[in-house]
Amino acid sequence: MAALIASFLLAFSLLLVGVNALMVDYYAETCPGVEEAVEEAVKKATANDNTVPAALLRMHFHDCFIRGCDGSVLVDSQGNNTAEKDGPPNISLHAFYVIDNAKKAVEELCPGVVSCADILALAARDAVAISGGPIWEVPTGRKDGKISRASDTSQLPAPTFNFSQLKQSFSQRGLSTGNLVALSGGHTLGFAHCSSFQNRIHNFDATDDVDPSMNPAFADSLRKACPAHNKVRSAGSAMDSTNTVFDNTYYKLLLQGKGLFSSDEALLTHRKTMELVARFADSQKAFERAFVKAMIRMSSLTGGDGVRLDCRVVT
Ligand code: HEM
Ligand SMILES: *[C@@H]1O[C@H](CO)[C@@H](O)[C@H](O)[C@H]1NC(C)=O
Ligand SMILES: *[C@@H]1O[C@H](CO)[C@@H](O)[C@H](O)[C@H]1NC(C)=O
Ligand SMILES: *[C@@H]1O[C@H](CO)[C@@H](O)[C@H](O)[C@H]1NC(C)=O
């Protein structure tokens, strides 16, 4: 009976591989140590540099929004091809070495088995958990793609987007406005450069220099950090006041007019999304539940068809 069940499960899992469907413990037989190896690499890097978790979370988001989660964000430019990571909104992308290190460890355990896309998805989960956020089981079985183009980055949502643009960008990828509100909570971690919110603090529109929906003291502090013709490339602002902790402070600040981007503020322009912001501001647990659900959905957008040996190089 057990053998029958086992062979049924095997047949079933092969069927799933065929359609590139994801499952928890996909590597249980082929690479049992993969999740520990990735976690180890993320922990080690974070101990040296507390900006690593934010970088990994954003990297995974970029990966999934362009050609599905296929590791395309990890590829280096080569020859006449300018890769995704060298496209315009790459200013905060960093810590690619963490994925390189994880991949190296995983290749030693089980050569040629685990995709770079899966390693990044696992690393993003670990990044959230390490920062005090929820931990969840990540379905794996993603494949790596062969295409990575700088021009594709125009498909990413911009921080200047209004609600209808955000809604369209997410719904094109099967993500709801509820998912949009929950995933925007990723902005509880990390740092933004001046260029990402410049539109709100200088020359906002014909009547206002500063976006009137912003808390004035908050706007003032951003204008100090980012003067009109800012030349300091590294200047900017923490995403929220506790930007190495995965908590619901982002939503609390948003309700006080202290959201950083127009795209954050846009969540308050519709009743349903505004109510969700209020709920997440009120309850860390509600935020975490919704975030996990939305992350699993976003990270199930698959695309590739192979397993790269070096995450930076398409062969
Ligand atoms: C809703 C649409 C989104 C827009 C328009 C957006 C835009 C941005 C921008 C402009 C930055 C700052 C880049 C810079 O100035 O350095 C940023 C940072 C960040 N975003 Fe988003 N984002 C969105 C959704 C997401 C999602 C879904 C996640 C993950 C769940 C995410 C996670 C992050 C993180 C962690 C950072 C900080 C990165 C770092 O410090 O290295 N964002 N985002
Ligand atoms: C880019 O390089 C590849 C080979 O390295 C070549 O096949 C292709 O034609 C080149 N494309 C352009 C637009 O130059
Ligand atoms: C971002 O793109 C610029 C050119 O557009 C490139 O010089 C730089 O290395 C890229 N940054 C990263 C982290 O890839
Ligand atoms: C959102 O932005 C788009 C593009 O700029 C614009 O066409 C649209 O009218 C805007 N929607 C709202 C509700 O402001």
TrEMBL record:
PROSITE patterns: PEROXIDASE_4. The lineage of its organism: Eukaryota, Viridiplantae, Streptophyta, Embryophyta, Tracheophyta. One of its GO terms (biological process) is hydrogen peroxide catabolic process. Its main location: secreted. This is Peroxidase. Ca(2+) 1 binds at residues 63, 68, 70, 72, 84. It comes from the Eukaryota. Residues 1-21 form the signal peptide. Removal of H(2)O(2), oxidation of toxic reductants, biosynthesis and degradation of lignin, suberization, auxin catabolism, response to environmental stresses such as wounding, pathogen attack and oxidative stress. The gene is LOC109727678. It comes from Ananas comosus (Pineapple). It is found in: Secreted. GO terms for molecular function: heme binding; lactoperoxidase activity; metal ion binding. Residues 21-315 form the Plant heme peroxidase family profile domain.
